[in-house]
């Protein structure tokens, strides 16, 4: 079947102005030629350290940023060329939840205001029924209807994230992008919110893109995982295949830093040396070579392509010259 979302050769460069005349002197290559599909009902996670381009990818899909190049097709509609009003209509199908819903909620608005505003923007529920709809949304996300007239500061972090989810759900979206949606929460609250998202996915046939710096967090919710480094996809695979047979040294390093990652099979921890290089002037060849324990001459000269791994599950792709030849690290 046709994917719900197709991202093809997406680039997102941000100009850096400088000099006396404010001319563009360089670019931050936040996302640098990535392609992937998302199927209906799937949860695809995008994982990597901060600055790898994962949030920018989410924002570009929603057209919160206009892509520098490439294609984003949602239900076979070309998102990049949508006009303002077409974009507004499409927004009801594509929603985003951020790390801190409080940051995007007006502190003087009650929960009712927040939810009814979301319904107003898309104008999908008759005015007289909006409060009723807001009440049922609260129940859907596990809050009490008695909480409808409360203000954001009266809620805990986990409850505020439930309000953020209710706001996203208000317009009956097909795809929700969760950008570090549980990162600020305690581990036990994280689990509750992830369970809620899972249940909502079943109930409303939702598709998720889950953006996180933490592979451990996305482990249970993901069907497939995309690992990004400095604007590029370095590995993409089914969750099981990625966790059991990680191929890219960067994926292996991320996995080995998860404290709870299966200690029985875990070998030594692979330290990530140094900082992520600047996305303004990424390293030549393999962008990971400055931090890779296996880097060789070829890695500094030639950029590895994202290629299927012959002996692994279909769809497992890695961008490393020596994928499959490196020591087993799972
Ligand atoms: Fe490491 Fe070379 Fe593979 Fe890049 S291509 S991940 S530097 S071994
Ligand atoms: Mg981010």
Automatic annotation (TrEMBL):
<dbReference type="InterPro" id="IPR050319">
    <property type="entry name" value="ABC_transp_ATP-bind"/>
</dbReference>
<comment type="similarity">
    <text>Belongs to the ABC transporter superfamily.</text>
</comment>
<dbReference type="Pfam" id="PF08352">
    <property type="entry name" value="oligo_HPY"/>
</dbReference>
<dbReference type="GO" id="GO:0055085">
    <property type="term" value="P:transmembrane transport"/>
</dbReference>
<protein>
    <submittedName>
        <fullName>Dipeptide ABC transporter ATP-binding protein</fullName>
    </submittedName>
</protein>
<keyword id="KW-0813">Transport</keyword>
<dbReference type="InterPro" id="IPR003439">
    <property type="entry name" value="ABC_transporter-like_ATP-bd"/>
</dbReference>
<feature type="domain" description="ABC transporter">
    <location>
        <begin position="5"/>
        <end position="255"/>
    </location>
</feature>
<dbReference type="InterPro" id="IPR003593">
    <property type="entry name" value="AAA+_ATPase"/>
</dbReference>
<dbReference type="InterPro" id="IPR013563">
    <property type="entry name" value="Oligopep_ABC_C"/>
</dbReference>
<dbReference type="Pfam" id="PF00005">
    <property type="entry name" value="ABC_tran"/>
</dbReference>
<dbReference type="GO" id="GO:0005524">
    <property type="term" value="F:ATP binding"/>
</dbReference>
<keyword id="KW-0547">Nucleotide-binding</keyword>
<keyword id="KW-0067">ATP-binding</keyword>
<dbReference type="InterPro" id="IPR027417">
    <property type="entry name" value="P-loop_NTPase"/>
</dbReference>
<dbReference type="InterPro" id="IPR017871">
    <property type="entry name" value="ABC_transporter-like_CS"/>
</dbReference>
<dbReference type="GO" id="GO:0016887">
    <property type="term" value="F:ATP hydrolysis activity"/>
</dbReference>
<dbReference type="GO" id="GO:0015833">
    <property type="term" value="P:peptide transport"/>
</dbReference>
């Amino acid at each position: 079947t046709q994917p719900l979302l197709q991202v093809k050769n997406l680039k997102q460069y941000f100009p850096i102005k400088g000099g006396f005349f404010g001319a563009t002197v360089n670019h931050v290559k936040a996302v640098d030629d990535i392609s992937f599909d998302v199927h209906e009902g799937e949860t695809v996670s995008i994982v990597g350290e901060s600055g790898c381009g994962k949030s920018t990818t989410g924002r570009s899909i929603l057209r919160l940023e206009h892509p520098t190049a490439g294609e984003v097709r949602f239900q076979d509609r070309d998102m990049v060329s949508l006009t303002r009003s077409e974009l507004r209509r499409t927004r009801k199908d594509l929603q985003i939840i951020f790390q801190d819903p409080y940051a995007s909620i007006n502190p003087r608005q009650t929960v009712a205001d927040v939810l009814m505003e979301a319904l107003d923007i898309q104008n999908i529920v008759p005015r007289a029924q909006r409060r009723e709809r807001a009440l049922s949304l609260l129940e859907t996300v596990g809050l009490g209807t008695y909480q409808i007239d409360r203000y954001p500061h009266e809620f805990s972090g986990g409850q505020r994230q439930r309000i953020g989810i209710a706001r996203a759900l208000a317009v009956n979206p097909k795809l929700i992008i969760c950008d570090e949606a549980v990162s600020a929460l305690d581990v036990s609250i994280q689990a509750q919110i992830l369970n809620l998202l899972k249940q909502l996915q079943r109930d409303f046939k939702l598709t998720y893109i889950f953006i996180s710096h933490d592979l451990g967090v996305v482990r249970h919710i993901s069907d497939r995982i995309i690992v990004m480094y400095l604007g590029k996809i370095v590995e993409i695979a089914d969750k099981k295949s990625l966790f059991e047979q990680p191929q890219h040294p960067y994926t292996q390093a991320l996995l080995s830093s998860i404290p709870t990652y299966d200690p029985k099979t875990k070998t030594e921890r692979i330290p990530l040396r140094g900082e992520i290089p600047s996305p303004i002037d990424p390293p030549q060849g393999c962008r990971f070579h400055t931090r890779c324990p296996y880097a060789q001459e070829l890695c500094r000269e030639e950029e590895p392509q994202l290629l299927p791994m012959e002996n692994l599950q279909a769809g497992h792709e890695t961008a490393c010259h020596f994928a499959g030849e490196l020591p087993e690290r799972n």
